[in-house]
């Protein structure tokens, strides 16, 4: 009986069929990255808003005030009396009297300066120039409630984390394409509910669910793509990241053309319904079918792949075998029981956490530094495009470890320099920050590949799922770290990012180099991988490429 890899080689490892499926599934990266970074535009803080005094409606009706009049009579006196108070988060705690004059509602206080009058914090009574431009104005996420914007992004990342485990398990049990299609349906439905959520609680619940299903689409599309190509085509896992970057580039254009947050939310959610059409053009993973003892269906799909690739599969094939000796109920202890495995696991967990935290932090930082948000976001996204090409050019020539470490070091230096550059030279500050964004993107994309290459077949799926879950943990922490530290000093988050990236660069130098080495099949193979800057060890015959995030 031939092995799956032998049959795939005969049917074509990356022919017309795989290229078509790769292109179709890669579109998922565009919608997923738009969801991933959407908070930058959904959560823009309005430029002009102010606190409305209690009873303002009655006063305005009695005096015939417009909203502008109301602001001039009730908010401007506060600012004139105390220039440090803008009237956004505090109001005068006084009795407003319009019985004498509608133009002087503070007459009863005589010559008292408004700076000496008592103040009260504003509670759920803000007026916005553009009330539906963002979730901030929609749900009053300003002043003491500003932390709730951080919470909305943390909840999305918590959904990503839940999706990685729940839908990752479901994809292993019920099939890749089924979970992919259900996830696409879930993203679309939850996205619509988020857009029309009647309150912030409903918004958070369905944003969590949209994150969970969104991670399901991205994870299963990655799995499907990597499982239908040959062992020499591991690079598709890097190339698919280009479509993630395309989503980042397209997002500011969508936000620029659509003035309301509901419109942006619908624009990034509704395309997921189109992916349901893949039911008729994307098959189930034949590798997964073989692990579920469905060899006849797998063979039928392989014959179809061969036909589309212009190849001919031998009619004598009646059964396919696959080496897939999974550890029953693997646990974290299996990943740290031996020295090399333990070192790899701990370093990879830190690398996932750091890459995600810094990447997402730099993306969201664009929303708080001023300037032209749409143009800056577009440029920072466009600069990510060379990342995949740089990886493709370097990893098979100089290896994985050196580009991995170098990208972290460059990101660290760029963040540090950006923090201390003067505001008077914005072009230089933007250029250095952009270099940091490119570098951390390279690190983020390399960790996808390296993670799958450093675990044996028997633990690969579990190991990659566990380590990559730290990515979502970093995403949960990122908004709180960015926005709360930026409130102390705008550049303080960059100092933290710099330290984290520098430590990561040093740690990844301790990982084995996997250039030119087949994927390990056992824990013993991992323990024998060349470490540090040693020479590559003996190549092993490769039997299984069932690796994914």
Automatic annotation (TrEMBL):
Listed CDD domains: MFS_SLC22A1_2_3
Membrane topology of this protein: Multi-pass membrane protein
Provide the alphabetized UniProt keywords: Cell membrane, Glycoprotein, Ion transport, Membrane, Mitochondrion, Nucleus, Transmembrane, Transmembrane helix, Transport
Predominant subcellular localization, coarse grouping: membrane
Which stretches are transmembrane?
A: 21-42, 154-171, 178-198, 204-225, 237-258, 264-282, 347-368, 374-395, 402-421, 427-450, 462-482, 488-511
Q: Which reaction does it catalyse?
A: (R)-salsolinol(in) = (R)-salsolinol(out); serotonin(out) = serotonin(in); guanidine(out) = guanidine(in); tyramine(in) = tyramine(out)
- List the GO terms this entry assigns under cellular component, sorted alphabetically: apical plasma membrane; basolateral plasma membrane; mitochondrial membrane; nuclear outer membrane
Q: Give the location in the cell.
A: Apical cell membrane; Basolateral cell membrane; Mitochondrion membrane; Nucleus outer membrane
Extract one GO molecular function annotation from the record: neurotransmitter transmembrane transporter activity
Pfam families to which the protein is assigned, alphabetical:
Sugar_tr
The family database entries (PROSITE patterns) matched by this protein are listed as: MFS, SUGAR_TRANSPORT_1
Give the matching Gene3D superfamilies. MFS general substrate transporter like domains (1.20.1250.20)
Question: What are the BP-aspect GO terms?
Answer: dopamine transport; histamine transport; monoatomic ion transport; norepinephrine transport; serotonin transport
Domain Major facilitator superfamily (MFS) profile stretches: 99-516
Cited InterPro entries: MFS_dom, MFS_sugar_transport-like, MFS_trans_sf, Orgcat_transp/SVOP, Sugar_transporter_CS
UniProt cross-references to NCBIfam families, sorted A to Z: 2A0119 (TIGR00898)
PANTHER family found in the cross-reference section: SOLUTE CARRIER FAMILY 22 MEMBER
The Swiss-Prot or TrEMBL record describes its family as follows: Belongs to the major facilitator (TC 2.A.1) superfamily. Organic cation transporter (TC 2.A.1.19) family.
Q: What is this protein called?
A: Solute carrier family 22 member 3
| Organism, scientific name | Gymnorhina tibicen
| Encoding gene, per UniProt annotation | Slc22a3
